[in-house]
Amino acid sequence: MRLAMPALVACAIAYLVCGIPFGMLIARSQGVDVRRTGSGNIGATNVGRSVGARAAGLTLLLDAGKGWLCTGLAAWAFSSFFVEAKALAPGQPFDWALTCVYGACVAGHVFSPYLGFCGGKGIAVGFGAACGLNPLIAAGLLAVFLAFALPTRFVSLGSSCAAASLVAWAAILGYSPAAIAPMLVVAACVVWAHRGNIRKLAHHEEKRFSFHHGGGKPE
Q1: pLDDT tens per residue, range 161-180
Q2: What percentage of the chain carries pLDDT values higher than 90?
Q3: For residue 118, what is the DSSP state?
Q4: Helices then strands, each counted (H, E), the chain
Q5: Could you read off the pLDDT of 31-66 as tens digits, one per residue?
Q6: Could you tell me the pTM of the whole model?
Q7: 109: closest CA among 99, 117, 101, 119?
Q8: φ/ψ (deg, to 5) at 53
Q9: CA-CA distance, 103 to 163, in Å (whole number)?
């Protein structure tokens, strides 16, 4: 297939780039090993709880940015050198190429090759990568996240629900079954990464989000 090899190369690059653990590096620059504080996660939520709002914001920006960069560059490269841009659109012959890159972005973050195939939970990178893949999917994911996270202050609830909605948004927008398959894997992967949070939610043990303010303990 015309795009099989370029897509494979793009997936490998996306996996390696999105595996960069920005949250851990940012927290370490502040003298905090984020893997040993709070939930032990390297994502923006735990960085915010363990270090503070600025560190969380930077983590969120960089994690989302690496996903957007990878899918955005892949879309440009595929359409510039291999197929017309419309062939990558939902329901078109090569719509699967970008969703595979999207899957590689999330997999790189959740199973980082730089951290022994451990990592974050894939929400920020998944949103950023969705912006490069299809802004309508990104908007749908954000809407679901906010609808559940804002009223409850349970980031994990909003994140899990947003991930679970991914396949529905892809189907609504008309992606082919071949393109939806990587999205299904991504949704399952992100929900799996939140399994501990889901268990805590079920037992009313999950902590509501709050920023670390230096002196006191985060909630």
Answers
A1: 999 999 999 999 999 999 99
A2: 82
A3: B
A4: 10, 0
A5: 999 999 888 889 988 998 889 999 999 999 999 999
A6: 0.91
A7: 119
A8: -65, -40
A9: 12
Q: Are 165 and 186 in contact (CB under 8 A)?
A: no
Token pair 């920020």: residue = 124
Give the side-chain half-sphere CA count within 13 A for 212.
22
Q: For residues 111 and 18, give the distance between their C-alpha atoms in angstroms, rounded to a whole number.
A: 10
Q: How far is CA 169 from CA 138, 143, 183, 218, in A?
A: 9, 11, 10, 35
Q: What does the buried/exposed string (b/e) look like for 101-117 if buried means 16 or more CB atoms within 10 Å of the residue's CB? A: bbbbbbbbbbbbeeeee
Identity of residue 159: S
What single-letter amino acid sits at 28? R
The H or E element containing residue 146 is helix 135-152
CA nearest 101: which of 6, 2, 172? 6
